[in-house]
């Protein structure tokens, strides 16, 4: 009887620890914002505003169309801020002749619903479907750009839908490794889920990939990008922007940052024609 009680107590404690760990993980992964700082007309670009009905609340996005024949960048942003905060970096893609579609996942900006792991991934697939079916854009002219946490759904799409190529910007290897980085003296990683495993996904990749990060990234350490590059099949490319942080690559070294991306897009899309 004593053994049974101890076993049940240990099981209950473990369950509570796992629940607390997953709750902390969700809070750490998703930091949705609602306030917009910028609006498109401040950058002299007027997008087509889009609301996609995905269930659980429509998601809001902007499509910046430069030219029908131009490659299209599907930009999947990270765990914080909104599409409005991404306008400064988006401006650079547009000025270099790329169409861009960017959206806010559930719980962010003008998008309805709540942020969650499943919504974060399914929203990216809805955005892809909007481009291919809603706008009739050829998959061979679409490049996925997964920024930070956005690398998770970008890799999922790249492994299941036709696209020309994939860009991973400041993306992590696994959630468990991020837990190790954040809590090096505590075994918190044992409570982390195995859901967002980019190491597993990148091994399966069959399209060209560009991995780019800043050398001074304090949010996701640069070794994560190096590890993903090491695991990625060919054709692959790795660019490190010296002196740049997690989201400042386009500011610190715009020529190197945009040059690497536009060169990759041009080579990759041309290859698929």
Sequence of strands across the biggest β-sheet: 2-3-6-4-7-8-9-10
Question: For the record, what is the CATH homologous superfamily label?
Answer: Alpha/Beta hydrolase fold, catalytic domain
What's the domain count? Answer: 1
Biggest β-sheet: count, sense, barrel?
8 strands, mixed
Indicate the radius of gyration in whole angstroms. 20 Å
What global shape is seen? globular
Average pLDDT rating: 87
Give the distance, in angstroms, between the N- and C-terminal Cα atoms. Answer: 71 Å
Poorly predicted parts: 4-27
Which structural class do you get from the secondary structure elements? alpha/beta
Strand content: 15-25%
Following the backbone from N to C, one meets helices and strands in this order, namely HEEEEEHEHEHEHHEHEHH
Structure description:
This protein has helices spanning 2-29, 87-95, 117-134, 151-158, 175-182, 198-203, 222-231, 249-252, 254-272, and strands at residues 31-32, 48-52, 59-64, 72-76, 80-81, 99-104, 142-147, 165-169, 209-214, 236-241. The chain has 273 residues and is α/β, with parallel strands linked by helices. It has a single domain, classed as 3-Layer(aba) Sandwich (Rossmann fold), CATH 3.40.50. A hairpin with a 6-residue loop joins strand 2 and strand 3 (59-64). The protein is globular, with a radius of gyration of 20 Å. The termini are far apart.
